[in-house]
Amino acid sequence: MFRDRNRESSWLLGDSGGFQIGKGKWEGDWRAGSGCEKAQKKRDGVLRWMDKFMDYGMILDIPAWVDRSPEGSAASKISSYQEAVDGTRYNNEYFMKHRDGSCKFLNVLQGENFAQADDWYEQMKDFCDPVKYPETHFNGWAMGGQNMCDIHLALKRVVTLMHDGLLEKGKHDVMHFLGTSKLEWAMVLTAIQRGVRKAHNENFIITFDCASPFLATSNGTQYTGYRLEHEGKWSYMMESAPDDKALHMDTTAYDQYCDPLYDNWMSSPMSQGLKLNDVTVYGPNDVNRMGQSNATSWDSFSYALLMNHNVYTHLRSVQEANRVFDEGRYPYMLVEDTFDKTEVKDVIARIFELDSYDAQMKMIDDHTRLWMKVVGTRGHVGKKTVNSSAQFFSLFEEV
Question: Residue 294: which region, alpha, beta or left (left: phi > 0; alpha: psi -120 to 50)?
Fold first, then answer.
């Protein structure tokens, strides 16, 4: 399904593995020009994998936060923000020089606060410049770090890209937001996509990824529906999935069993074809292929089945949320009503209707209170997020 896919009817975006470097899983000296054999083997392997299988892929970035990860810093030899930048630039240059053209690459933007994010962009933006690199420039953007969880910063970045000539039709059509799990952000990103399409690049598309459907399964839960309460909190609903060895002979239809268990059971094409004991496989006296008796009634394939169900219902929740949002319903996070009611989508639309860079930036800054309501995917809120990194860089300069 993956290796022999039909590229005319499918589209794949590949993640690079930068997170594995940050967490210390890919050991090696990742400093620029270190000549480390372990790092080079991974660097070249990721590039070859992307070129062979992917339509788009992310360059192999080294996250700005790696020096704050004891395991990551020790395993990667990266001990500062600038070393992470330099190591990423080295990887970028390698990808640009050795890519075979089969895969289009996204330039990953990192940074733990506004200052770092702006600095990272200035040091990396040329890799997407079709004037400087007419044949080998990268083909879009991936938003990491503060860029992907702070709507204030994200809007400024998108506007800057437009005016820098780095969000051009046919050259930079894709922008990916890494690790975006909050349902409300699906509407925010849809609003940005529509604004850019209308004002600048009709082919522009925003994508985002989320591990929640898989993490839910690993924690023994499944998606059961969604919450889209007007002026309330919008979210995916996850609840404990059937897991009982006493059910190993039960052939009840899975949907039939689940429907009375949950308030709003949302079935999927996968769940519609399952019997209960397709999931609750092991009986009280059964052992797995390793000869061990587990506490769970699930086997490995049970997890695969429920992951499939969860991915489908996650996507359907996003689609349904966008639909009702267009009808006029909204979550409390995307409206500021302290004085006059102001909706996030309306302000975003007006930003992209303006012609000048200064006017767009002013409108973004004028709505700081509104952006502060939009909770980021990792709990960060707006430009004034108070964390140790942001606070440090507001008071000190590193030498």
Answer: beta
Query: Which one-letter amino acid corresponds to residue 367?
Result: H
What pTM, to 2 d.p., does this model score? Answer: 0.91
Pairing of strands 174-177, 205-208: parallel
Start-to-end CA span in the chain (Å):
51
Task: Answer for the pair 194, 162: CB distance below 8 angstroms, yes or no.
Answer: no
* One pLDDT digit (tens) per residue for the chain, 399 residues: 888 999 999 999 999 899 999 999 999 999 999 999 999 999 999 999 999 999 999 999 999 999 999 999 999 999 999 999 999 999 999 999 999 999 999 999 999 999 999 999 999 999 999 999 999 999 999 999 999 999 999 999 999 999 999 999 999 999 999 999 899 999 999 999 999 999 999 999 999 999 999 999 999 999 999 999 999 999 999 999 999 999 999 999 999 999 999 999 999 999 999 999 999 999 999 988 888 888 999 999 999 999 999 999 999 999 999 999 999 999 999 998 877 789 999 999 999 999 999 999 999 999 999 999 998 865 455 444 445 555 565 556 555
Strands (DSSP E) along the chain, which ranges?
A: 13-14, 56-58, 104-109, 140-143, 174-177, 205-208, 221-228, 234-240, 335-336, 342-343
The full DSSP string for 365-388 is HHTHHHHHHSB-TTS-BSTT---H
SS3 assignment, position 138? coil
Burial 234-262 (b: 16+ CB within 10 A, else e): bbbbbbebbbebebbeeeeebbebbeeee
For residue 78, give the DSSP letter: -
Instruction: Return the beta strands (E) in 140-183 as ranges.
Output: 140-143, 174-177
Instruction: Enumerate the β-bridge partners of residue 225.
Output: 237
Determine how many CB atoms are found less than 10 A away from the CB of residue 311: 18
